[in-house]
Structures are given as structure tokens and as C-alpha cells.
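Q: Histone H3, please. Structure only.
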Amino acid sequence: MDAILKHSCFGLFNAACQILSVDEAGKIIMTDINLMETTGDESLNDVTGNENNASEPQEVDEELISIVQQRPALYDPRIPLQERTKLKKKDLWQEVSNCLGEVSPVGAEKRWQYLRDCYTKARRNFKKIQSTEKRSGAAAMNDSNDLENRPPLTSPGISELSVATSSSRKRQHSNNIDEVDRAFLQTLSTNIQPNPIDGFILRLAEGMRRLPYRERSQLALEFLIILREMEEKLGLLNN
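A: Structure for Histone H3:
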């Protein structure tokens, strides 16, 4: 008996409130005396809701995860099937129950399934958030790339027309490039004389851009009224 109690699975054994028994398969089971009169099927609350349990729910969950992690046959589908039979899993959950203490095998299994489902949902939601952030950050670029990379949906007649006119467009485009280059160089070489009116307009526009929309509209209307009155006074509107 001393050799059995030295095993890590029975580290929480308390002779005052627990007993050891052997099932039909020859497995040693640690059972709480207070639970012997109840049925063996507990709900999820049996894992963390027992008022007599001294451990906090979070500590119980962490301990449960640590114990199950040492038994890959309970969660890893890559383990050979002969090591994951119902009978062997039942024995493993009994070991988990013995290590936890005051938690039945059924309660431990249900709690593990609940924690696994919570982790799966949280991870799925996290990936959705990451995917949404990436799409929102590059939505315009992706739409542009999709339009550029999308194959043209043209009928045979339109395709033939495009091929027939492509050579003439290329020749016209080359001529336009020469004309554009010359116009661009000519514009750069032209000396622009500073105009006081242009400077005033630029300064006025810069200041009005900083104004709220309502004040900017009111000020623009006042300027136009003053300009209109001055043009009428000078007789410029009659010409």
C-alpha cells in the first residue's frame, strides 16, 4: 500500500475523506467518501463549483491542463488508435481524476472539453480580427491589384478589333510622346513672371482653407459682393 501511495497520481490522497478501491479491470480508483452515495455522472460545475474544494477554479483548470498534457492519447489524434481506445481513455481519465482529487473522471473530461472549446473559439476569433485588420489596411491596394490582374472579358470580335488597331495606336502614342516631351521642356524653360494678384489669391486661399465651412462660405460671399460692387462702380460689367 505504501508503494501505491507514493505514486504521483495519489499525491493528494487523504485517508480521512477518501478510499482506494479496485475496479473490474484491476485499476486502483481514488474515491471521495462524500461522493460515494451520489451518481458517477457530474456536470461541469462539479469540477470547479464544489464549495469544499480548497482550490480556486483557475488553479484547478491549470492543474487539469497540466495533467492532461502529460497524456497525449486524450487529445492528440496522431497517437495510434490502439492507444486511444475507449477503455484506455477511460483509464487515463481515471488517472486524471486521481491526480486532481475530488473530481470524477466524467467531470474532468467534461471540463477539459469545455476548456478546449473555449480555446478553439478564442483562437478563431483572434485570427478573424487579424484578417480583418490586414484587409482594412490593404483593401484599396487589393482592389486595384484585382482589377489590374483580372483577365479581360472580350468577345472574339472585340479582340480582333483590338489587335487590328494596336499597331496604329502605338505609332500615334510614340508621336504623342515626342510632342509631350517638347511641350514639357518648353514649359520648364519659360520664365514665369511673378504676379502680385496671383500671390494675393494664393495667400487668401491658404487662409480660407483653415476656416470652418460656414465662416469660409460667408467670407467668400462677402468678397464676391465687394468685387461685384467695385465692378459696377467702375463700369466694368457693361463691357
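A: Brief note, in case it's useful. The chain has nine helices and two strands.
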